[in-house]
Batch of 4 targets.
Target 1
Amino acid sequence: MAGFMEALGHNPEASLGFFNGSSGQGAKDDLDTVSNWDYLVDKDGKDARTWPLDGDGKTTGYTNLGHALESATLGRPYDASPPSIPELGSEAQNAARDERTELMEKVVDHYKTADTIEKQDGIRESLATMAAGHIDSLNYTMDNTGGSGDLVDRDGLFGKDAHRLRDFGETSSMQFMRALGADEESHATLSVAQQVYGASLMTAQGNDTDSAVAAGLHSAKMHGMLDESRIEAIGKEFGDEKTARNLKLEQQGAWRDFAAEATIGAAVGVTTAAIVPAGAVAVVAVPLAIETVGGAATTQFGNETMQWLKDHEFENHDEAAQGIDKAKAEGRQNAMGPLLNYVEAHNMESGEVRELRDKAAEAYDTGGKLSDTDDARGW
């Protein structure tokens, strides 16, 4: 079965058909048939598969399952190099895209808690790659506060029809991104994807400054949501070990410049050296809100060993507080990047920049409040 999943990971059409189908004995309406989704994905369901374990008590099954889901939801082999986003335009291409986003909605709804992801050890990296590949629909979904999407022309801002976007459900999407954002590497991957997509969404608005600013502020909110998830996870991971916790916060805040193997260009507002968190960042294809050949930016970043952690120690509360502050400041810097590029490109006046900066800070904090779980923990 693991080998079968790996094979599906290289055949997008077969994989998509498989997860939308059923298996079993007898005719299609026979009660002995089981949904392939329920059997392989819904671990807690009565029909769920139990993967055999090796001598170390581990299985590659969920890694292979993740590869098959990547193929099905992204429309390309999971290990394609470089990865790409399937083109749209023809009736068949659009129909296939709609099938992929429908399956992705099920993925988002199912893997919306850290506990669900952790039970399927090995699937997290694939989920982050899938989220990056559908970052456009996730952004579209999260711009519907209180059901206001239609009134603020959400469809027009994100180009819903042109890009065949799908609303995955605001609550499920927030929980899904929070569950992924809590992990260091998933957070890094999604932060990169969000910065690239947010910049392209601003560029897609052309000379409509109001819409471009709205796109930039929305992206800042998304960054705030991801960053809050990661900072909370650090606090949970280290508990009362204040020194270790603040070292980890400082590591998260010690952003580094990486040269991308490929970017979407200066016109989109992302410089060739994007500011991203240190650590392993997956090779992902990020869908853009503008027309490009292939419709995607392939973003690849290398690994970097954080010598900083070996060279620095916190010895008092003042230094610990500085580490926390730095983590938050660098998160805002990442969120502000596309907006500041836009400001410079359009020669905005200082007063306009100040107003935009303050609004961006509010949007970032709003995103943080969305994924904040302090209330649930009674803090």
Note: DSSP finds 18 helices and six strands in the chain.
Target 2
Amino acid sequence: MRTKSAAAWAVAVLMLGAAVGGCAEQSDRGPSGSGAKHTKSLREPEDKPDSRVVEDDDDHTVLELSDGRQVSLRFTRRGLEAQHRDASGDAWSASKTVYETSTKPCSSIRAKAYRDTVWLATGFGTYCSDGEEPEEVIAAVATGDLSSWTTKPTKSYIYWPKARISDGGTRVDFVHPSSLQTTTLTWRKGSGFAEVVTEHKPIHPWFVGRWRATDGSQQLTVHQVEPGRWARVVIESLTGPRCKGSVIVTGSSQYNLSMSNFKLDQGTRTVNCPPEELKYNFDVKSSDGPLRLRSIGNHPKTVLTYERAG
């Protein structure tokens, strides 16, 4: 039977070439974050793919470009191979290895093109044709006379379900979005593939700033996401044994933050430093607070209440 992860892979491959929504960026004004707004990053207009698929099955795809040339992509025992031919329908070129592997392919090949730029994404895995996740995932681009391909293997869980092309076909962005982050692999003509970049989703600006527990026991400093880093909360005890550390937080909703991966920097762990990650989250309903530490469940209870401290 196909697993849930395999279904996700199938949907991802079928969506190759679709446009992806803008990634959110954050801004805030002062510790309270009361003037903070989520803004969408601006990017150049995308170029709409102008190719069409003329043959397609589990192991073989033929793509026709806007100028009539055709590209044949085929899984073999050696991996993934490509051929091309002119619009006149002359003989196919010699096979060119796009990606060499002895691992079995996962599913059919999906590819698109704009003018003379062709891109694809696919995966390989011992049991992925039976429903398991791929062990190897690749993105690849060919341009010009299509005689050579630039290929980028990536982590198996990054499926590249979407791709967008811009700058007249000289840039392709392979995109893997999720509810908490967007991962992008960019190819540029002349320089090839860059390193994978992950943009974390900002938390709501109401949380950002410094907070002090009304019982005087501890202080929180909530930091917004930074390039390549999750949002985090620094927890510091104000009474009793010394405890200072930080925990990653993600916005499960506009009003709630979930916690994970607490790191102790000073002292020793104490009560609520840190709160148990699977039992509590942070809650705020307005820019001025209060912020609350609340239990998770059908009948949540407030454990600590915090007020802004500058």
Note: The longest strand covers residues 256-267.
Target 3
Amino acid sequence: MNTKSLEIKDFIKRVLYHLSNNTEDTSCTLIHTDEYPKSIDAVKLNFHLVILCNKGKCDASVGHHNFAIQSSSISIIPPHTVFSMKHFSEDFNAHFLLFKSDFVKKGFVKSDIMEELLFINPDYPPIFDLEENDFNDTLYKFEKIKYEIENQSPFCIEVSRLYILQILYDYNRTCEICLLNSDKLINRQYQVMYEFRKLVDKNFHKLKTVKEYADIMYLSSKYISECIKNQTGTSALSLTQNRIILDAEFLLKYSQLTIKLISNKLGFTSTSAFSRFFKGIKGISPDNYRNKQEN
């Protein structure tokens, strides 16, 4: 399968499209945008993307997680993970920090420690709301990185690397605090939702109905649906369908696979069944969707 992850330069051109097309590719850059970016249906990156949202909001998907990126939040999108961003509000305003793993690994921190800092647990949505002081502190670090990169001052690479390291430590600390607090509040419905989403992420190419997942979990479809609705605000069926669509979009955009092979890969009994499913969700056929991306 010929699918590749976007490089930093490609992401800047395709998503932050208001920037100059002659932007040099680099292992680290920071962009502030007060214009909402182009919607991303499905993409994989070859770098880490940190989004600090100053104002406004948008919807995002990373793997099986669906969440809102909104004012005073920070999100880290790990490399080589299918994700999407769409439905940007008109007042969307954010900083995008893009860097490759090798950029931060060249510092003085041991590689095993850096691997832990860069690891984003796929079991949880990679988004956290920041308190005002924490947000202002993080914003200061983002602005310092932008200043160092733009001015190319002596030791700008080393200084930028240190600020990124601080941001990663802060993110991991926030993550640990949130998980410790949430462990005390986890209820049965949350556990059901959590297990269901993990199963969907692992089996979406084979299982298509809530009942199939319910049988694995030894629960009724009705109970699972109630848990998912109460915990996420959406239906269990929508979660399964959205996960399939996310990979379908990615394969249609970035692979050379035929519609038939994509249909087989996603576990559909026929190309026509896949086409009906895709059109029912997206309002456009797989062929037309692919052609639209190429034009």
Note: Residues 156-183 form the longest helix (28 residues).
Target 4
Amino acid sequence: MAADEKAKAKTEQAKGAVKKTAGRAVGNQRLENEGRAEQAKGDARQAKEKGKDALKG
């Protein structure tokens, strides 16, 4: 399960980065903001999983 969550975090981070870059390239502030939010969500998920790993041992 943890590996699945880590993969989701990486996917969210990557999708967010692509959206952010695309939004910046075409001058679409909404798309850029969506990308930032999605990337932050992936960062938070990854931090949560790292915390779980630290508690395990």
Note: The chain has a mean pLDDT of 93.
